[in-house]
Amino acid sequence: MKRMGLIAGFCLLMGFSGVQVNAQTEGQEYILNTESAADKQERMAWWKEARFGMFVHWGLYSSAEGEWGDKTFTRAAEWIQRNANVSADVYQETMLPKFKPAPDFASKWASLAKQAGAKYVVFTNKHHEGFALHDSTQTEYDAKDVTGRDLHKEVVEALRAEGLRVGVYHSLWDWHHPDAPAGKGAMNVSGLTMEGRDLSRYTNYLHAQVNEITDGRYGDVDVLWLDYSKGPYQGEVWRAKQLVELIRNNQPQILINNRLWQNTKEQREDSGKYWFGDFSTPEQHIPATGIEGIDWETCDTLNITWGWSKHAVEFKTSTELIHRLIDAVSKGGNYLLNIGPLPDGSIDPKTVERFSDIGEWMQINGDAIYGTQAGPFSRLPWGRATAKEIGDGGHRLYLHVFDWPANGELLVPGLQTIPTHGSVMGGKAAETLRMSKARGGVVLEGLPTQPVHDAATVIAIDFDQVPSVAPYRVHAATDGSFDLEPADATVKDAIYHDHEMHRRSCIDSWKANAEAQFPLQVEKSQSYAVQIEVAADKIKDNATFALSAGEAQRSFEVKSTGGGEVWKTLDAGSIELPSGPITLTLRCATIDEASILKLATITLKPVASTP
Ligand code: FHN
């Protein structure tokens, strides 16, 4: 509901010439919180314990269902206004009559999250389209004015009723506000410019709406999820320091994500500073080796859209989602899994099924997720590990086994300490594991031949000290093959990239004599067929590479695959690997300077020896 005069009053109140930033921050630009590291950890404690949250993208865009006229959208359906290039007036006129939330939609979200084992929910209060779910004094483009219901309040109350923490997503962009960023460098409908727009009026509006959702009228806010900054639109363009100060004054315990800044590589390297936000937010990807020294949360989609599109029919399977949850947590992160409710706020059956499956897995294995930290292994051939302190100096490792060994025996590669106790979560109490040091690690024997859960069965192993783990070597998976990932390599004169949204982890920028070295532990000397995932472009003369380990050597050529993002699997012949701890070296012999050449996973499959 819009109350004229309040905008001016609010601006005065907040002193838009600049709210006083804590004097202790003088000279330490952007450090907006002077609490000690221990206090920060205390503030983050519930979130680190939670590990799993549910994201909700729902707004007017949900009613478009991924269709505008004859155009259809499977990816990012919440961007339909911009991607179909619809003016704010036409969008509003078309979408408002369609917006008819069901009476009990919010309680359905809350019970889905609760049932899945999520401990917090972050929902879109306002996405880029600019429509707010709360009763805003700043605009009539909000749920209360349109439906007579304060939908923000309904959601918050439903979440609290289920004991869930409340996270609020609020877009920094706004495709409805007449003064919001437009034109060059701005994310807005195309053809608009900044002419006649007054960015400071929009920033006042942004601050005023953020104030409304955090000033206590909706109770405590546990997380504020601001989205997002890019290029020229970041930091002080949003009057970020002042905004953070406002939020922290309103809600001293709140956690704020990192997206008031773009977080360029330089900014990322300057870690530990609070202008980062309280946590970092990789989107649709799980960093290969976590993010050292920083709290982070991967947000992820079920398919390839955040907002509902009836055309986005390809969903990740429940097993893939459970693996992604475990993967994030095993690297020290949180996992925020999105749902895109239907126009009336209800939830489609495929989403319900996946969240129920996750919940069923969490019922058995929740202890291996909640309150855990990254496991001590760089990578495990059969799954992942999480870790927890269990009191009196004791430690527990949770081994999340994705590929269950049919022979009842599992090697935990690199583990140097024999556990004092081990048990299969959800398994029969009578099962006792035998555990001994062998084959460069600890071997668990006496496991049931069938997994408890097809997606991942967890073995909890306990220690009365911090377990020691040998430096990392890639071990063979249960079927004897090796998967060498880019993150496993020590790279010289080429560049390793962790995967970014929609892009794969890879090693690129190869030069002649550049090398990637992989540490392997080979149990049996034998011949392995080599397959390499390659994307290559602009190669005139084929690039040549050599793989070697000790005396063994194999050369192969790489041709263009038709594009720098066109991935193909290259058969690179076979190589005889010696047994023991070895280094497999991939060396570039020749390459044109202008080539684009990326290498991702290398797979070594044992070649059956002829009798
Ligand atoms: O543009 C948005 C997108 O629609 C979605 O909300 C995601 C969630 O992290 N954030 C933005 C892109 O980074």
UniProtKB/TrEMBL annotation:
<comment type="function">
    <text>Alpha-L-fucosidase is responsible for hydrolyzing the alpha-1,6-linked fucose joined to the reducing-end N-acetylglucosamine of the carbohydrate moieties of glycoproteins.</text>
</comment>
<dbReference type="InterPro" id="IPR016286">
    <property type="entry name" value="FUC_metazoa-typ"/>
</dbReference>
<keyword id="KW-0732">Signal</keyword>
<keyword id="KW-0326">Glycosidase</keyword>
<keyword id="KW-0378">Hydrolase</keyword>
<dbReference type="InterPro" id="IPR000933">
    <property type="entry name" value="Glyco_hydro_29"/>
</dbReference>
<dbReference type="InterPro" id="IPR008979">
    <property type="entry name" value="Galactose-bd-like_sf"/>
</dbReference>
<dbReference type="GO" id="GO:0005764">
    <property type="term" value="C:lysosome"/>
</dbReference>
<feature type="domain" description="Glycoside hydrolase family 29 N-terminal">
    <location>
        <begin position="22"/>
        <end position="367"/>
    </location>
</feature>
<dbReference type="InterPro" id="IPR057739">
    <property type="entry name" value="Glyco_hydro_29_N"/>
</dbReference>
<dbReference type="InterPro" id="IPR017853">
    <property type="entry name" value="GH"/>
</dbReference>
<dbReference type="GO" id="GO:0006004">
    <property type="term" value="P:fucose metabolic process"/>
</dbReference>
<protein>
    <recommendedName>
        <fullName>alpha-L-fucosidase</fullName>
        <ecNumber>3.2.1.51</ecNumber>
    </recommendedName>
</protein>
<dbReference type="GO" id="GO:0004560">
    <property type="term" value="F:alpha-L-fucosidase activity"/>
</dbReference>
<dbReference type="Pfam" id="PF01120">
    <property type="entry name" value="Alpha_L_fucos"/>
</dbReference>
<comment type="similarity">
    <text>Belongs to the glycosyl hydrolase 29 family.</text>
</comment>
<feature type="signal peptide">
    <location>
        <begin position="1"/>
        <end position="23"/>
    </location>
</feature>
<dbReference type="GO" id="GO:0016139">
    <property type="term" value="P:glycoside catabolic process"/>
</dbReference>
